[in-house]
């Protein structure tokens, strides 16, 4: 075992701006995974998986009082050869990638009417991305989407969330043997929206997944990416970018379950925060089971606090049950604006506002470049510029 970095429990930056902490049990939950919402107690906010989430802002998703009274406009742009189906809960592909791990995800599974299955055939190499646009039109909606990627196929998938409403959904990503998938989920909701989603990925032998989660909008957004390895040789990369404004709660909770030998995972999430009561939460759980010899894993979370009044909770968790691994480590860092970088740029004639933008763009550049879709990368850079303009 090599390169294990520990974050001291309760390490705190200046004042109450940000907190980094490490719990002792990465997989501790109040109830085991289940498709049945009745198997989960109603959370009260003291549970490990809910302790950072303002339950009163979930609009009843957590206690069963939310009803499917809303509408969401869904559009799918599927390249040639890709099929789109509406299926029932009894379809074998629905739920194959993973089981709900909290009451809201189970509620979403129990409440959807038809699941959408988008399939990429074996050996297909898509020249254009699969694009899914979901536009909330108010009220509460539930959903379930399955992306079924055949063996040795290559695909880029972009799911774009806009509009308003309350949305709880599950996403399954089935990556066949030798397949390569980039999955991008953009949360660009209106300011009052609520969105919770569990992303489940199941990787076949020598399969690779790149997950990119981008969060800007919403009043409360809670995304839970998870990956399971079905065979040896799987590789998962998780990237995340979030920009949290005054009053927003943005929470990203990852779980990587290394249960088979010779697989790899890498996690990099970065966030910027500004304004009073801006609150970002990042939970990174990695479990290396006893059978998972030859595992190589690393996770990193970095946060840039732009103003007073913002708060970050960053919790990296790493459990290792075998010493026969290539490497395992994690790191978490939260800080204010780098005055030295600003001074360097301003001393060379760069105006303060422009210097500030350049520093933030540089902070996020690594993640934006991972998307691989030029027009989406440009859109995100523009969005970051708009966020910075609003704070001036």
UniProtKB/TrEMBL annotation:
GO terms for biological process: iron-sulfur cluster assembly. Residues 135-363 form the SUF system FeS cluster assembly SufBD core domain. It comes from the Bacteria. InterPro entries: Fe-S_cluster_assembly_SufBD, SUF_FeS_clus_asmbl_SufBD_core, SUF_FeS_clus_asmbl_SufBD_sf, SUF_FeS_clus_asmbl_SufD. NCBIfam families: sufD. Belongs to the iron-sulfur cluster assembly SufBD family. This is Fe-S cluster assembly protein SufD. It comes from Streptomyces coryli. The gene is sufD.
